[in-house]
Structures are given as structure tokens and as C-alpha cells.
Amino acid sequence: MKTIAKIASLAMACMLALPFGANAQKEAGIVAHRGFWNCEEAGYAKNSVAALREAQEAGFWGSEFDVNMTSDGVLIVYHDSDVEGKKIEKHPYSEFKDYKIKNGETIPTIDQYLEQGKKYPETMLVYEMKPHSCAEVEDRFVELTIQKLEEHGLLCPERVMFISFSLHMCEVLAQKLPEFTVQYLGSDHNPDELAAKKINGIDFNYNTFYLHKKWYKMARRNDMSVNAWTVNKEMDMKNMFKMGVDQLTTDNPLEARELLKKMNYVELR
Fold first, then answer.
1. Tens-digit pLDDT profile for residues 3-40
2. Residues with Cβ < 8 Å from 116, sequence gap 6 or more?
């Protein structure tokens, strides 16, 4: 019991030590994590075309989705690196094309996903590029991504932003598309280090901000955009909003919307 109390005390101390202040911005955008999947209309299917559609129709600032590349260069919207034990990167698309996700859709290709994405110009497409085995494969992934966005008329920083745990891909994107927002997802590099690599955004797990209390201000000094993931509890949402994040990524976007209203903050659309 003493250990639990000590942990709770430390967590509260971290919260209180966050860089809250009267000058923090009182507005934020809500990003639906893997789309607005947590509803009947989407069939509770993460990364589905239906989940993207529901996020768009609900008017959230952005909708996040995960992209992997098959061995024959097909980009598919799927979170894990493998499907039923088959490594996506090591197998051709033909081995995944008939696999059904929770709502009965097949795994969307990036073409199918972007066709829905372009129907709502006001919804930011938060494109997560999943890490792959080596820099050569990741470079191909970046090139195919740029090609597909061009084909769908979406190679535009007002329509798409990039996030990734791959530092290499963030660096390549920052070099090739400097006008786009590129947010690094990992917690192994601080904002100064990332800014030195021309990466202009961070998307840290919310616990990272509790552990590294100076990193938010460090990011702001570098004119970086700031996102937090995946924030599902009201207390953590409130702390991130008070801290001043630009975006908050959550599986519970409706709850985040209601909290912004209670706090008299502006929900960016």
C-alpha cells in the first residue's frame, strides 16, 4: 500500500510540475486515433474507411491512420507489422487482400483510404508511417507515399501531416517536404535534437511530458508543433490541454470535445 501511495504521489507531483500557465493557448485540435472507430457506424473497426468517414463527418480536426508497405510495394492501412503472423513487409499484397477487419471491410489500400480522405478537405489526414526493416526499404516507402499523395491530389501541407517512430523517415520527409508538418513519435530524442535534424514537430506519448517537464517549452522555443498520444483519460486530457498542445490524439474524441467545452477552450476544426 505504501508503494502504491508513493507512486500516486509522484504522479501527482509530475502533473503539478507540468508547464501550465496563464499564457498557455486555450485552443486545440482533436485527432481521432485510427479514425473515429469507437462507434456503431464504423463497426468498431480501427483504421477502417468507415472510421475515417465518421471522423470526417463528426468534424474532428484530424484523423490518424497507420500505413505499412508489402513486399511488392502496396501501401495498406493497418497498424501492426504483421497480419496473422505474416510480416507485411515480407509478403506480397495478394496474401492480405482478402483479410477482413472487424466491420467486414478488407484491409484498405492507401488508394481506397485516400479516396475517402479527399472528400472532406477540412479534415487533416494524420499519416503514420510505420517503421520498416532498413533505411533502403523506408526510403522506398517514403517515395511511394509521396507518389500516392500526388496521384490523389493530396500532396498538400493543409491536407496531410506525417508522424512516425522512424527517425530516419522523419528526417527524409523533413528534407523532401520541408513545408509539411513532420512529428516524431518516439521519446528517445528531445526537441532540440529533433529540431537540429530539421524535424518541425513532436507527437509524444502524454507520459513523456510528465517525465520530461522541460520538453514542451523546448519544443516551443524551436517553433515546433506539439501533439500528444494516445490520451484517453479525462485527467490526462485536461493536463495536456492546459499545457497547450496543438493537437490531442485520442480513442475518445467525443469525450475530448466535451472536455474542451467544459474548460471554455476552443476546439479547432
1. 444 444 455 445 545 554 445 689 999 999 999 999 99
2. 49, 52, 53, 56
The SS3 of residue 242 is: helix
Assess whether pLDDT exceeds 50 at residue 264.
Answer: yes
Q: Which residues pair with 228 in a beta bridge?
A: 204, 248
Distance of CA 143 to the CA centre of its chain: 20
Report the distance separating Cα 164 and Cα 184, nearest Å. Answer: 5
CA distance 27 to 185: 22
Q: Which residues are bridge partners to 41 per DSSP?
A: none
Environment class of 85 (CB within 10 Å of its CB; exposed 0-12, middle 13-18, buried 19+): exposed
Distance CA 14, CA 123 (A): 33
In angstroms, what CA-CA distances link 79 with 69, 93, 136, 150? 11, 15, 21, 23
Whether residue 215 is predicted with pLDDT greater than 60 in this model: the reply is yes
Summarised one tens digit per residue, pLDDT across range 43-84 is 999 999 999 999 999 999 999 999 999 999 999 999 999 999
Q: Which residues pair with 109 in a beta bridge?
A: 76
Instruction: Write the burial class of residue 227 (CB in 10 Å: 0-12 exposed, 13-18 middle, 19+ buried).
Output: buried
Task: Work out the percent of the chain whose per-residue pLDDT is above 90.
Answer: 91
Q: Which domains does the chain have, with CATH numbers?
A: 2-268 (3.20.20.190)
Written as nine digits, the cell of 28 is: 486545440
pTM: 0.93
Other C-beta atoms closer than 10 Å to the C-beta of 40 total: 8
Residue 5 CA: distances (Å) to CA of 1, 191, 248? 6, 32, 29
